[in-house]
Amino acid sequence: MKTRLAALCCCLLVLSAGCVGQLGSTGAPGDTTDPPATDPTTTTDTTGPGDGPTLNQTLAEPTTCEQVWVSYWGTSNKAELWTQGNVHVGWTVPADTSMLFVAFEEGTVLGADHVRFEGSAVTADGAAVPIGDRSGEHEVAVVAVLDTNENGEYDPDIDRPCQNEDGDLVWTDWVRFDFPVGQPADDDGTKTGA
User: What is the pTM assigned to this prediction?
Assistant: First the structure.
């Protein structure tokens, strides 16, 4: 009897482990983000804030945002930092706040992910920020931006980047990606031939 009970508990643990996924950014119940499918030949290098391009001329005046952070996701396995068309970040957003996570290459906006959750602060890992199809080397940073007018779109003259209580920009720092050439994204965002 003890053996059957132990086997049943083991099966339940294994089955329930598959039910827990990564949090998607839409906030709908049951939304998950699949682990990124990557090309193992792709290289990714992190660079410090002083080593990459500057965003000073690109960003509006920062505002202090409490309970907000963003960082690249999967840095222990750099191949998981991206799928073709997206970079993957972890973040925390406060409750009832319209936030944007905006990807930049130098002073150019590559894309943005809009996030808003009602009721409580939320933390996510592996959330996708769109960057469009890229090939070759690109230095990309993601900045946490308060969606001031709450329209869900990045408006550089209106929306304000977040800074922490110490006055530091809330961002990922620059990462240099070497995207493979000729690997367009499929409809699901994964790379063709990966």
Answer: 0.69
